[in-house]
Every structure is written in C-alpha cells, then in structure tokens.
Design brief:
By secondary structure, the chain is an alpha+beta fold. It is built from ten helices and 26 strands. Bound molecules: calcium ion (CA). The site of calcium ion has 6 residues, from loops.
Length: about 425
Amino acid sequence: MSKANNPKLQSWLDVPANSDFPIQNIPFGVFKYKNTAPRLCSRIGDQIIDLNKANELGYFSDLEIPRKVFRQPYLNDFMALGKAKTSAVRERISELFNKRGRKWNSREMVDHLCFAADEVKMLLPVKVGDYTDFYSSIEHAKNVGSMFRDPKNALLPNWRHLPVGYHGRASSIVVSGTPIRRPKGQMMPADATKPVYGPCRLLDFELEMAFVIGQPTELGQSVSTDKAEDYIFGLCLFNDWSARDLQKWEYVPLGPFLGKNFASTISPWIITLEALEPFRVAGPRQTPKVLPYLQYAGEKNYDLDLEVSIELPTGENQIISQSNFKYMYWNMCQQLAHHTVNGCNIQVGDMCASGTISGKKRSAYGSMLELSWRGTRPLPMPDGSERKFILDGDTITLRGWGERDGVRIGFGEASGTVLPALE
Ligand code: CA
C-alpha cells in the first residue's frame, strides 16, 4: 500500500471533521482562479493546491515531468505519464503537506500554492474521448426488467454472462454545478395512439460511478482482468441523467439514444485507485461461472457508500437514496476486459460508467424510476409535495465516500439543477 495512504498521517493544513479530502486522499482535478488559465490541482481539507505552481517552485523537479503537463485544462497529459509518475506526484504532495514530512517552507507553500476551495472554479477534469455506460448492478437490471418486461424473467439471457453496455455521448458530460436543461423529444405516452413531441415528462437521475482510462491500447489489443487496473487512473461520481419517456419509446432495438445523451454530470475530482486501495472487498458470487476472459483473482469491488439527495426549489433537502459501490455484480476489471476483448482500443481520458448502482433495499435504489416504482409510489418531500420524477428547479446531488481506520476518502459531489426546457 502507498505510503500516502497511511491512516496515521496528518496534514499541517486544517482538515475539517468529515472532510472528503484528508491527506490520505490527494485527488486530482483542474481549477481556475479568477481570470488565470486553468491548471492542475489537488486538495486537502478546504485548500486547493496549485500543482503548476508547486512544479514551478521546484517541488517536483526530481520527478522529471514536462512543465506543460501541469498547465493544461485537462488531466489527460498528466494521466498519460503513467502510474510511476502520477503516484510519485501523489506521494510528494503527501510529503509536502504532512506534519512529519520533510522541512518545507510551509509559509511559502500556503502563500503561493493554496487557494480556499470557495475562491476557485473547478472545471471538467478530463477531456473525455469516448464514454461507455455499463448496466452492471443486478438489482437495477432486475428492477428495470420487472417493470418493463416480466418479473419472472427480469434478466435477459445474456445478463449473467457479460457486462452489458452501450456507447454513450462524451460531448454532454459536464462538471458538477452545471445546470441541466430539461430535454425535449418524442414520446409515446401510455394512453396515446401516436407519438407526441415536447419536453420530457419523466426526467430521472442515475446513481453511478465512472472510471477514467489513464493508459491507451492499440487497435486489436485486449486488456485482461489482471492487467485492467494498470489502465484505470481513478474514479469519479457520475449522474447519467435519463429521460425515461424518450428512452422507452426509442430504445428498441439499438438501445439508449436521446433519452440519455443530453447530459451526464460528474464530480470534479478524480480519486486515484491507490487512494481507494483500503476499500477493496470481494464482489458478489457470479453464477453461472463466467467465461475465462471474464474470470478474475482478488478483491475487485470497493466498499464505497453512495448517497443521492434532492434539493427542492424551496431550498429544503432530502436524502432519497443510499447505496454502495460494492453491490456491483460486474467489477471494473471485468468491464474493461469485456470492452476490449474484441480488440476495441481505449484512449487516455475515456470514461466508463458503472450503470445505475442499486442495492437490495428500496432505499438503496439508484434512480427515481425504481424509487417511485415507475411513478406508482411517489416519494414524499419535506415541503409536503411529492416526486415521481424530477421537476424543474430540483437539484440532484450525488455523494460518495469510504471510511476505514478513521480515514474518510470522499469524492466530493456531482450536483446539477434542472432548468425548464427551452422553447
Ligand atoms: Ca446509465
């Protein structure tokens, strides 16, 4: 395990209780301060650490990283350096801000490197080349299959044999805080005999995690389950906004299209696989046994609590879902092995989302579709109203974190407010 993960480490920077960003996290992101150019950053507590400035001041000089890597609007070039370099940067940040670390000039560091989190603007951290969405939670797949098809045969015959997925749209992936415009499109309402056009009526969120590709492959090459982690740089929260009425009408036979590609919200921080090491757990037993290329050794799931809250236009808040990343039937290594088994190449910055992460209990369902059971069981809201799906003015916020040995490694949040459809 990386030295930076040592639960005993403490930073000389203040870290508020329950912060997602203790010194053991050291996430990576991209920020902007006033009108300056975007640059790479990390975070401890409520302090944003300017990695470009740290590099200019010589704190990374022995790591032999081209200067321009830290002055980019995206993490892509940094991730492409490979884990030997990126982990060394993470370790170095840990040394710099660790109470018992080397004797650095802490005054200079605070003056030149640190910004209060509320003074900066966090940007989309990754230039996403291709985006793939999986469908890997068995509870979610069963719920959706029961509602739309047959509760006795909720899973289609392929589901337990391969991680089902589809190619999504990268252009509409936005960073937390970006407003979401209600999509318009074609629908076939239950009582209608011909399709109608208009603003989506059944707008939904999907609670997901996504992994980011840090190393490319060549066309024709496949990534095995035991090598997959070498290609995964880290993870973020992912809200796969969904227009259920558009989706239902359009999805046969080629799968999701306009019901999904209008927006996806991610959290601004990429949490490295190294930082998530303490949270590894065994995944669910897979039956029947999967084909050899999908078999894996070791613990490939992660025990990370996930939470969705809704903020109403009146300002009142309510948690509407509490799930966990460990429920995933198919793990990330299997997803990547399957994605590349046909020789499909991957590129730095590609993003693969998990699919909606639902648990067994109703309170752990990861979408309004499931929580309100297709609108048949509306959720009571704190202002006396109720929700079957998401209304204009509602804000949906995803949060995620793991906790071990008194250390909480969190993802920050992926939040978006729904605006009315444009005329
Ligand atoms: Ca999805």
